[in-house]
Amino acid sequence: MSRSRKPEIAILSEADEAALQAEIAADPDNPEMTDEQLARLRPASEVLPPALFKALSKGGRPPSPNKRVQVTLRLDPAVVATFKATGPGWQTRINEHLVKAARTIERATIKDESAGPFREPGMRRLIRTPKKSKAS
Fold it and tell me: What is the pTM of this model?
């Protein structure tokens, strides 16, 4: 079982570092900033209009109202291949199928009408009772 490792950072020799620094210095499109230019820098919040800064600094994805639990499970390769072949969003589609299956199982097995995360209001519960053996 192979585990992913952090990428290794290449250590440049002094000659390679000097050559790289020379290329950086020779680039007319992106000259290195001087100490004076660095000293004049100000935060974007001071320079940009407030609405633009707010729009640009809104980071990340908004929190989902539907919290999900991360799990690890092993699926048959054919199942994964079939869902992946349907394109982006295949993991969400697997979740949708599992939700439907959970509702079906819950409807067939839960006695208590107030129990279960997939309970629909007013839904009549089916109760599965064990069969008695003929030996009794």
Answer: 0.40
Is there a contact between 102 and 118 (Cβ–Cβ < 8 Å)? yes
Sequence-ordered list of residues with C-beta below 8 angstroms from that of 53, at least 6 positions apart, any chain:
44, 45
Q: Which of 13-17, 36-40, 68-72, 108-112 has the lowest mean pLDDT?
A: 108-112
What phi, psi does 121 have (nearest 5°)?
Answer: -55, 135
Q: What is the CA radius of gyration of the chain?
A: 30
Is 125 in a helix, a strand, or coil? coil
Alpha-carbon span 8 to 21, nearest angstrom: 21
Q: Could you give the dihedral angle defined by the CA atoms of residues 100, 105, 111 and 116, in that order, rounded to the nearest 10 degrees? A: -40
